[in-house]
Amino acid sequence: MTVSKTKARLVDVARGLFAKQGLENTTMNDIAVASGKGRRTLYTYFKNKEDIYFAVIETELDTLSARLMEVANRRMDLEEKLVEIIYVHLRSIKDVVLRNGNLRAEFFRNIWMVEKVRKHFDQKETEYFISVLREGVNSGDFCVDNVALVADVMHYCVKGLEVPYIYGRLGEGLDKLETRRMVKTLIHRALRGER
């Protein structure tokens, strides 16, 4: 097994154990045993359990980033592309949190740890927004004076919607198609300066 495959295996095993037992109840020895690797191999890649936790989060964020890049590169209506980026982000974060069982509580309890690992992802996502917004400005579809600022605002707005979306409080009582239409209308008005 190559170095990257060994590390990926350790991260995958740790993710499963964290989801099942929680971060606090999982030991480095548990991860070594469950992965079929020795503790020496585990410590070759990770200093401690928190390092592995960070690697689990990074792996999840890399997957999410790849999904967002795929949407950002699609040839489609630019407003619809922005809406799709927003919803792919929210659905993916919700899937990660719900899929990871006991790790879910850790995600919310130690949000500062997640934020530390998340910086690179946040920068990439903002770059996707910038790319779509610039395309819209260049084509004359969007009326935006400061693309970087608008991209930052969009990113932080979506980030702020994660918890309400995960808990089903975003658009509570509204049809999913209706909420999507409302988001598109909001984007349309904000980026085209129309009422």
Question: What is the strand and helix layout of this fold?
Answer:
Elements (H helix, E strand, L loop, with lengths): L2 H19 L6 H8 L3 H7 L3 H24 L5 H22 L3 H7 L1 H29 L7 H20 L9 H17 L3
How would you concisely characterize the structure shown here?
By secondary structure, this protein is mainly alpha-helical.
- Fraction in beta strands: under 5%
The major sheet is characterized as:
none
Rg over CA atoms, rounded to whole Å, is 19 Å
What best-fitting shape do the alpha-carbon axes yield? elongated
Distance between the termini: 59 Å
Given the structure, what is the number of helices? Answer: 9
Total strand count, please? 0
Mean pLDDT: 87
Low-confidence stretches: none
Fraction of residues in helices? over 70%
SSE-based structural type: mainly alpha
Output the helix-strand order.
Answer: HHHHHHHHH
Name the quaternary structure: single chain
List the defining traits of the structure above.
single chain; 195 residues; mainly alpha; 9 helices; 78% helix; 0% strand
Structure report:
- There is one protein chain.
- The protein is 78% helix and 0% strand.
- The relative contact order is 0.11.
- With 195 residues, it is mostly helical.
- The model has no long low-confidence stretch (mean pLDDT 87).
- It is built from 9 helices and no strands.
